[in-house]
From TrEMBL:
SUPFAM superfamilies assigned: HIT-like
Annotated HIT domain residues: 4-111
Catalytic residues in the record: 98 (tele-amp-histidine intermediate)
Gene Ontology MF terms: catalytic activity
Protein name, as recorded: Protein hit
One GO biological process term: nucleotide metabolic process
Signal peptide: none
InterPro entries in alphabetical order: Histidine_triad_CS, Histidine_triad_HIT, HIT-like, HIT-like_sf
Amino acid sequence: MDCLFCKIASGEIPSLKIEEDGKHLAFLDIHPCSKGHTVVIPKKHSAAFAEMSERESAELFAFVNGVSKQIYKNLNADGLSIGTNVYEAAGQTVMHTHIHIIPRYNGDGGGSMHSIVSSCSAEEKDMKYLAQIQNQIRK
Ligand code: AMP
Ligand code: ZN
């Protein structure tokens, strides 16, 4: 398959490896948002996080957890932003599931998850409307 991260997983394209096990690989992002920005991939191809099985995503996150602790400790980070862009609408550019681990440092000027998007009108923040959304998601 013509997939950049499959090629990194197989070693066909080199990467700056941080950690690896049989099913996962963590490597430095080539365009880091902060010092130590790391990308974690499952070696098995899936296009996006939402297309993985719950079991495989649980294994992926267990691996992410270990790598994130290693990064936090060894780079003396003050915090971490951990997340994944799912599909183009969310900014995904490489269509192979990956989790970003972005070390955060006091005063780095970055925002929280809340700075990603702010698209709700006042009406959409109303409790009645939120209850409708709750029902829509749960149906
Ligand atoms: P996303 O925008 O969530 O799809 O993230 C893709 C990430 O992969 C970006 O942060 C890129 O900088 C990174 N990236 C692209 N090509 C490479 C590469 N060859 N080695 C390491 N990271 C890469
Ligand atoms: Zn792939």
